[in-house]
Hints:
By secondary structure, the protein is α+β, with helices and mostly antiparallel strands. Helix content is 34%, strand content 12%.
Amino acid sequence: MKAIxxxxxxxxxxxxxxxxxxxxxxxxxxxxxNRNNGYFxxxxxxxxxxxxxxxxxxxxxxxxxxxxxSYWVWMEAVHGKINGDWQAFNNAWDILERYIIxxxxxxxxxxxxxxxxxxxFAEEKDQPNDYPSLIDSSVPVGEDPLHQELQSAYGxxxxxxxxxxxxxxxxxxxxxxxxxxxxxxxxxxPSYINTFQRGPMESVWRTIPQSTCDSFKYGGQNGFLDLFTxxxxxxxQWKYTNAPDADARAIQAAFWASKWxxxxxxxxxxxxxxxxxxxxxxxxxxxxFDKYFKQIGNCVNxxxxxxxxxxxxxxYLMAWYYAWGGSLDTSGGWAWRIxxxxxxxxxxxxxxxxxxxxxxxxxxxxxxxxxxxxxxxxRQLEFYEWLQxxxxxxxxxATNSWNGRYDTPPADVTANTFHGMFYDWEPVYHDPPSNRxxxxxxxSVDRLAQYYYVSGDSKAKSLLDKWVTWVLANIHxxxxxxxxxPENLQWSGTPPNVHVEVTKxxxxxxxxxxxxxxxxxxxxxxxHQQAKEAAKEILDIMWWAHQTDKGxxxxxxxxxxxxxxxxxxxPPGWTGRYPNGDVIENGATFIGIRSWYKNxxxxxxxxxxxxxxxxxxxTYHRFWAQADIAIAQGTYGILFNE
Length: 642
């Protein structure tokens, strides 16, 4: 194995002294920040992955997500703690604000928004081929209690939240750069796009990516709108979707940056960035509300379940999304906003809620924001408690809108509800089931463990005691050689009798890093030696066994790439085009509407697979996973001074 350079660190007030794990952080950090390794675009935007041919939630490696931005901000916070350099933290937020939070010109008609009628109802359907869905103005909706409060606090009707997806290299060619609407393939820089708008069975392979700013220049006669909604007429419009777990992670990172910068006397250096994180947390409250601001609890039948008023439409959980949009016509415009009725345990972030309710440097300006986040913190902890299995793992989540259309749930689900919300073992998406992946456990429980480390909350400790016992029993370690973690989970029953079974294991480095960090935070507070040793072994093994020139990674053989030929439902008679000329019509396939993939250097390996050969193997460097590894190594060093 190549010798690995060890970086000497200066021991200053508030800066961590040199150690094995903080040295590893610096090594990994420098690999990620090395421009020759391909993690960042020319504009400084982090790609989803170094490699371009990768299909997950993003359908191309040189797209990016708000998730990647949030991991970058977090990594820079750890960098500031270890090295005393806080400018990189500020710079990460500046680029985040420039490219993935829509500027005012990119959300131009918010001033027409009417909070007493936030949006018009449309059913969520079961299958992509059930779309478009009728927009139904006869269904009652509630009022938005946040808009006026936020407008008063910030002097604008714009929303300060990250859109979840960017086409960083403008591969699709929409050209929705900041302030530009469908400038086309010649536009340079990151372009806003969206996918996933046709129900829980719309896997990435069945999506029709669309422009976030639909001027009818691309797509069909009505742009892309009539693929998703059925209306009497269609107006040119813009729309964005927020992934609340990413915004919350960025706020969580800001919390640590605040604590660490205070320790070293550098708080003033990042105070402006912290105020922006607090502002993001103010708007993040939209994720705490039902999709159409209907009452929370026993909300069955879209027509008879009433709209909520005040905070009666708040479930106070971190939902899967919130979204906002409006018309492009600024002379007689309109705008809309929605929350989300469904909450996944994996999106909860009690540390972010705690920070927004308690940390003075992150106090939002909204008049009721602090009390909302305090309520959310309490509700999230209760949610974990309700969803915890006897084994210790956490089950899926809950919804206020069964089937996404306020249907009547089955009797076994209505028997035990959460504040009147219904248990869902696979919230939001079903292909694959949303709580099958073990990574949701590591991600969410890491945040719970950080909250416990900061607060000492006995309820959090009780939840962690059970989870740590379960996860330690399902981690298999050959000291110095190999570790395996759960990868896929299978669920049965309903609360309080939900059970879990591990059906597949792996040596994944991203989930390994998150799990190790969860164990480390728990161990540091609870003085749990076994958890500390397991975290140390995972971090040591991944570091020495899985080094690459660009980071830390293991080869993987995706079992889904035969779906490049997957049919993509387009209604009969509907025809449209992408900017590059790819035709969207009935009979389309995933690769058929992404013909540019055939020019990718990795495409021949996929083509051989489609021709009947074995599935190809790739070594991916996902930004979130590589940053997570750096953060986990550095955190272990910070916690234990090793």
